[in-house]
Recover the amino acids of this structure.
């Protein structure tokens, strides 16, 4: 599989470099711009359909990998299991198809929202539908290892439904809300995807030795492939999205990347029988999660709508304190990278104790 990982990273990166100019062209052709206003930090109209390039690069890359590498196509024939029990007749191919289908829904939703604002309730409804589609194909949180007790608790069906939908929607909107400066959301997702890749690679050998856990090893392998593909696409997009940006992710790109990231965590780290399983994805995206929490608290205290935009996010405050645009983005990259290093270190330490 090492060759598959290298292929996915570089091909997704190169494809994004090729597809992004096309996405910019389409944005301009259909008049889809992020217009400057008092809440925005840019001073000129910027095309907003950049997320389409990331979606296409990942899709084409996965199709190429499927047709070029027999080990990948063979991996996708593996039966989908939870705790060594078959989940109906589903395979990893079905799970991947569910992820791509659900992410396509939110991409289209976001692209329409970029062109013409969609009502909040309709956006939420489509996000729930996308989450349910992924769930139908096996992207589910069946249970969690309780922190500090090292005890796995299997969730009832209704809680599985609620927790999984909440997890997917929370990730999508967290990444979307983090997309406030050139390259900020893209960089955070790219670092997170790279971290999920490393964590998946670290975890796989510890479970592959146990024949009863080969289903989990297969899940981690698919998680690693999706992670490194998303990472490569993110780096490719940063060539256009880093300050001064010539194209934005838009709601479509941010929701898409958030959906993929959430799905990767569900099929990979959250299924690990470790106390850290729940904390791994949360620690990696702790910075945007904290920002969202503070935003909700701030809006609740002043009695405004939870989704009402403002200019008081962490990155906005840093700009007010005199930091330059690039400095703010880079310091948030550094913080995310430090959290990722902590996550990888804790994972490695915990695995050595097993």
């Amino acid at each position: 599989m090492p060759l598959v990982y290298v292929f996915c990273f570089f091909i997704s990166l190169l494809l994004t470099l090729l597809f992004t100019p096309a996405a910019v062209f389409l944005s301009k052709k259909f008049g889809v711009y992020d217009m400057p206003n008092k809440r925005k930090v840019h001073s000129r109209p910027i095309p907003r359909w950049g997320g389409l390039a990331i979606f296409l690069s990942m899709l084409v890359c996965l199709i190429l990998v499927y047709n070029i590498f027999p080990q990948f196509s063979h991996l996708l024939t593996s039966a989908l299991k939870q705790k060594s029990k078959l989940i109906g007749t589903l395979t990893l191919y079905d799970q991947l198809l569910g992820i791509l289908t659900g992410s396509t829904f939110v991409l289209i939703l976001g692209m329409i929202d970029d062109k013409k604002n969609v009502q909040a309730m309709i956006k939420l409804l489509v996000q729930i539908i996308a989450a349910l589609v992924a769930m139908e194909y096996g992207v589910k949180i069946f249970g969690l290892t309780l922190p500090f007790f090292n005890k796995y608790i299997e969730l009832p069906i209704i809680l599985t439904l609620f927790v999984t939908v909440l997890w997917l929607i929370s990730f999508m909107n967290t990444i979307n809300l983090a997309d406030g400066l050139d390259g900020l959301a893209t960089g955070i997702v790219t670092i997170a995807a790279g971290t999920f890749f490393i964590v998946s690679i670290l975890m796989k050998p510890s479970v592959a030795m146990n024949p009863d856990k080969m289903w989990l090893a297969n899940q981690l392998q698919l998680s690693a492939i999706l992670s490194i593909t998303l990472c490569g696409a993110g780096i490719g997009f940063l060539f256009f999205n880093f300050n001064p940006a010539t194209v934005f992710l838009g709601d479509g790109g941010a929701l898409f990347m958030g959906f993929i990231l959430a799905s990767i965590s569900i099929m990979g780290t959250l299924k690990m029988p470790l106390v850290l399983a729940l904390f791994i994805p949360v620690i990696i995206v702790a910075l945007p999660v904290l920002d969202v929490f503070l935003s909700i608290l701030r809006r609740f205290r002043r009695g405004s709508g939870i989704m009402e935009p403002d200019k008081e996010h962490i990155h906005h405050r840093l700009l007010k304190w005199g930091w330059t645009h690039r400095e703010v983005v880079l310091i948030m990259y550094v913080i995310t990278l430090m959290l990722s290093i902590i996550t990888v270190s804790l994972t490695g330490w915990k695995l050595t104790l097993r």
